[in-house]
Amino acid sequence: MTEDxxxxxxxxxxxYIRRTEQLYHISxxxxxxxxxxxxxxxxxxxxxEHDYHSSARIARKLKEVRQTRRAAKDLTLxxxxxxxxxxxxxxxxxxxxxxxxxxxxxxxxxxxxxxxxKTSVIE
Length: 123
Hints:
By secondary structure, the chain is an all-alpha fold. The chain has one domain (7-107). It has helices spanning 7-47, 52-88, 90-111. The longest helix is centred in the N-terminal third of the chain and has 41 residues, at 7-47. The radius of gyration is 27 Å and the shape is rod-shaped.
């Protein structure tokens, strides 16, 4: 972090919060999709006739779907702790967003500062 971009740290933290919350919701959706796919495969095995090669292909697909589900569930667990903190600290996050706006405003004001002499002592 440089002296002129104090806002960057606040911005990075808020972006992390938003990204983690999005990942959490995506992982929940991915887990549900994998659960649905698992049920489709199981119902296919239960209700339809399959030859040896078809059964092997379905078994490989089931393994792939279950691995996808596991990855989604693991991500949900990892991000859930952060999302719980987010939910408990919505007011704090809102004040950080306001703080970011204030810091950015000060940064903009100091970037293009010019000085108008009050006397002619330098001339």
